[in-house]
Amino acid sequence: MTLRVVVADDQALVRTGFRMIIDARDDLEVVGEASDGQEAVRLTRGLAPDVVLMDVRMPVVDGIEATRQIAESGSRTRVLVLTTWDVDAHVVAALRAGASGFLLKDMRPAELVDAIRLTARGDALLAPAVLSRVLDRFLRTTPDPAPPPSLEGLSGREREVLTLIGQALSNAEIAERLRLSEATVKNHVTAVLRKLGLRDRLQAVVAAYDHGLVQPRRP
After folding, report:
1. Distance CA 41, CA 33 (A)
2. How far apart are CA 24 and CA 80, in angstroms?
3. Among 17, 93, 132, 214, which has the minimal tally of Cβ within 10 Å of its Cβ?
4. Do 66 and 48 meet the contact criterion of CB atoms below 8 Å apart?
């Protein structure tokens, strides 16, 4: 199965570089390029790609607002936000808008390719340089204007799983912690996402913080 990608960046040279990296892989294909956020939204609606690589700073409509529009449209496309700016406010805004991942543009080509594959699968993805800082310091101090999804429909075990997702544990680590099989944990994760109406694992991390299931670590 080939993963279809749209590249959204206002710099043509950057788009060309990403296209060369992506199209060199047998399982990836760039199906469209956008020079601003509005065009990115339009291409996503028309092409239904698996992943959009979305720059933050773009004309007409910026990457954060474009991400919000894509998420709110009900599209199954996942957005991987890329920026040269290691700014926590951008990360939080992207997550609140519905991004499925956040990476800095100075990554190696292999890291970009892996990021696209991970994002398409729905796995949580944040650059290691920003992950713990964002989760511990910013998600709980910058609440989403919209209320988080209700947890009433979750079973006790599913709440446990959501809490551990919020701690950025992998399925294998959750399985070890709860003494369950990885297959069982995967089923619980799927149920949590479905019941809460969440797009992917990273949005579950945000939900766990919003509900106070995970508390920021003390500095």
Report:
1. 11
2. 19
3. 132
4. no
- Residue that is written with structure tokens 């500095």 in the block: 219
What is the amino acid identity at position 214?
A: V
Q: Which residues of 155-172 are buried (b: 16+ CB within 10 A; e: fewer)?
A: eeebbbbbebbbebbebe
Q: pTM for this one?
A: 0.75
Grouped pLDDT means (10 residues each) for the chain, 219 residues: 96 95 96 97 97 94 95 91 71 81 84 90 61 59 68 94 86 93 95 90 82 68
- Secondary structure element (H or E) that encloses residue 163, with its range: helix 156-166
CA pair distance 171, 67, nearest whole angstrom: 27
Beta-carbon contacts of residue 32 (< 8 Å; ≥ 6 apart) = 6, 7, 43, 47, 49
